[in-house]
Amino acid sequence: MHRAVASDCVRVERAGGAAAFLKIRHPDMAADVVPWAADAARKAAALGVGPDVLGEAEGVLALACLDPPWRTATVGDLQDADTLGRVLDAKRRLHADAPLGRRFCPFDRIRALAVEAAATEAPLPRDATSLLAAVDLVREAIAAAGFDLRFCHNDGTASNVMLDGTALRLVDFDAAGDNDPWFDVATTINEACEFDAERRAAVERYAGRCDERLFNRCRLYGAVDDLMWGLWGVTRAVTTRRSGIEFFKYGQWRLLHARTALAARDFETWLRRL
Fold first, then answer.
1. What is the pLDDT of residues 195-217, one digit of tens each?
2. H helices present in 15-80, as ranges
3. Residue 53 lies in a domain
4. How far apart (Å, rounded) are the C-alpha atoms in residues 258 and 196?
5. C-alpha angle 60/64/66, rounded to 5°?
6. Which residue range(s) make up the domain with 244?
7. Which of 2, 43, 243, 260 is the most buried (most CB within 10 A)?
8. What's the pLDDT tens digit per position in 215-243?
9. Residue 181, CA distances (Å) to 144, 149, 221 in order
10. Beta-carbon count within 10 A of 8 CB
11. Is residue 20 in some structural domain?
């Protein structure tokens, strides 16, 4: 998992008011946070699926603090079908609203990270070129099939979900922006589901049905998500001075997931049936 590596997180008591939660971005993570993250967080708060934004400054975002009994979700929480369903319901509320007007493209992000990795001599795996080529095929197939841009969270990490009983909030809109909503769904499924039966049930929860094309799109987007974070991990391992965080290990883990999906015997079938 990666949790609170882009920012220092501080709880601040406010005179005459509720506590605030400050995200203070690390300088070495500046390229990993979209410039409109605060606007995205405000939009989510207005939709009732994110905490209120109290203020912002360069590299700092102040949010309403979700004190206990609120707690950070884990992958184990998301493996509960009802909890996963409520996360997908929250994401659907984002997708149903008007677009933000700011594009987030995971394919562009992958290419930017690949360029950065080459420039910094990050320890890429031997098959990096093949992985990038496979994702280019995914990009072409999805573009040919078409999609609508909707406001998306674009991050399926379990720790970006806060729980209080059945109440739920999405946090960390550092990668938010307009995108194919099925990428948003896929990143969440990719985090929570190990088996196809679980993936199909999650797709059905979101869409009311699970046809082959929706399932295939989620499987492909899951690999895209893994490659994006894998490249991020191995690149940040050489671009940050914070040696106490195992960026490389995390990146290798996500690259393994990407490799498994992109090398699956069904990969071409997923591409052809979108």
1. 999 999 999 999 999 999 999 99
2. 37-46, 75-78
3. no
4. 16
5. 115
6. 69-272
7. 43
8. 999 999 999 999 999 999 999 999 998 88
9. 16, 7, 11
10. 11
11. no
Looking at the structure of the chain, the number of domains it has is 1
DSSP E strand boundaries for the chain: 7-14, 17-25, 53-57, 60-64, 71-72, 150-152, 161-164, 167-170, 177-179
Q: Quick one: what percent of the chain has pLDDT higher than 90?
A: 91
Q: What is the mean pLDDT of residues 247-274?
A: 95
Whole-angstrom Cα Rg for the chain: 18
Q: How far apart are CA 248 and CA 229, in angstroms?
A: 11
Weakest mean pLDDT among 4-18, 122-136, 255-269:
4-18
Please classify residue 23 by burial: count the beta carbons closer than 10 Å to its beta carbon, then call 0-12 exposed, 13-18 middle and 19+ buried: buried
**The residue type at 211:** D
By the 8 A CB rule, do 64 and 11 touch?
no
Residue-level pLDDT at 1: 67
Q: What is the mean pLDDT of residues 129-140?
A: 97
In a domain, 52, yes or no: no
If one counts every other C-beta atom within 10 angstroms of the C-beta of residue 20, the result is: 19
Give the CATH number of the domain where residue 77 resides.
3.90.1200.10
